[in-house]
Amino acid sequence: MIFVYGNYAHDDGEVELRIQKRPVFNARGFRHGIVETWNIKGVLQADTQAELGAKINALVDAYKHDDKSAGLHLAEGAGSTSHQLPTGTAEGGVRVVAGPSFPVGSGPQYAAGAAGRDYTIRLQAFYPELLTNLLSYQETISAKGSGGPRFVVLEVLNGPPVKQQVASKTPVSLTQIGNAVGHLSYPVPPPPIWAVSLEHEELRSIVKRSKRRSRNDFYEYPISWQYTFESPTSPGFIPDPNMQ
Question: Are 230 and 194 in contact (CB under 8 A)?
């Protein structure tokens, strides 16, 4: 078996490959994708120390760069195996997250004559499963006031302060505040939950925040909204937030 990263091909049978796949769940509890981690272990071998040094340099140079596909191939051009790590479909591409490292410092490492050098490398990629664009959603509905009377406490020249009612009925302030994150685009904010006739439309706020960039692609589009209402009477009940 020959392991290939980008245009760099390891020697036949040089690499020991361990693959781990871990599911990722978004804030709403839905499966969002798979993180695939490849742990590569191998031994560079050469007839001389000079030849081994050149192989080490070539290995280090090959894994300096991210965003290259990796895979295990059959020997002598016989084709590919099912173990492939394509960079094109990975969010942000395939990344070299560790190495090349040379963890063994004892024994015949870099010895004269037939020389060898143990190394380890770790590659990682995230493959999204776009069951929905919505990664997270949260909304808060609140009411301030009951519509009852208003009073003030007045200070007097002599004696304790005096409580005085100044209104028998008062308006109720209502707010609808929320935020959401979309994977590949901004989510559409929900409509006002109370009648538009009660909304202070001049206070309506829709805010788009900067998305996350990875490679030349953009992900995680955050947006927030706020609606402000005022009612001359108590609404009687607080409706449930919009569920997404």
Answer: no
Q: Beta-strand (E) ranges in the chain? A: 2-5, 8-9, 15-25, 31-46, 70-73, 80-85, 95-101, 115-128, 134-144, 150-154, 162-167, 172-182, 205-208, 212-214, 217-219, 221-231
Give me the average pLDDT of each 10-residue run along the chain (244 residues): 90 91 85 92 86 90 92 78 90 89 74 76 90 88 90 92 91 94 92 91 95 83 96 79 66
C-alpha closest to that of 140 among 224, 70, 41: 224
Burial label for 17, CB within 10 Å (0-12, 13-18, 19+), is: middle
- pTM across the whole model: 0.70
Torsions phi, psi of 61, nearest 5?
A: -65, -40
